[in-house]
Amino acid sequence: MPLEELTEREWLAKDKAPREAVFFYTPLCGTCKVALRMLEIAEAAGAALPIAKININFAPAFRDGWRIASVPALVLVQDGVPVRTEYAMQSVDALYALLKTFSP
C-alpha cells in the first residue's frame, strides 16, 4: 500500500498521532525510490506506525527547522517533535525493527 503523500502545510495542519514517521524524498532520487519501497514492505508487514511522505523540495520549513541534511530521510516524530532521523535505509528488516520499536 503506498504511503500517504502530504505537503508540508498538510502535515502541519493535520491531527498528529502520538508517534509517527515522516519520509522525505525527491522524485528523481533512485535511492529514495528503493527506500520508499522498503518502507512500504515494512508497513505492510505490520509496522503499525503512521508514515507520511513529503517531497523535500517543497518543505523548506522542515528542511531548515528539522535540519534534514540529505534524502532519503526517515524522521521519527513524537508529539509533533522530531526525535530521530535515519538516513541509511539498510534493509526491510532494519526498517521494520526501527518502526516496531518506535510504535506506541
Classification by helices and strands = alpha/beta
Low-pLDDT residue intervals, each spanning 5 or more residues: none
The CATH class is identified as Alpha Beta
Oligomer class: single chain
CATH superfamily: Glutaredoxin
Kindly give the count of domains.
Answer: 1
Largest sheet, described in full? 5 strands, mixed
**Could you tell me how far the N terminus lies from the C terminus, measured between alpha carbons in angstroms?**
21 Å
Number of strands: 5
Question: Strands across the major sheet, in which order?
Answer: 1-3-2-4-5
Rg over C-alpha atoms, rounded to the nearest angstrom: 12 Å
SS strand fraction:
25-35%
Q: Element order, helices and strands?
A: EHEHEHEEH
Give helix % range. 25-40%
Count of runs of 4 or more consecutive helical residues: 4
Shape: globular
Mean pLDDT: 92
CATH architecture: 3-Layer(aba) Sandwich
CATH topology call: Glutaredoxin
Observed structural traits:
104 residues, alpha/beta, 5-stranded mixed β-sheet, 37% helix, Thioredoxin_domain, Thioredoxin family protein, Thioredoxin-like_sf
Describe, in short, the structure shown:
The protein is α/β, with parallel strands linked by helices.
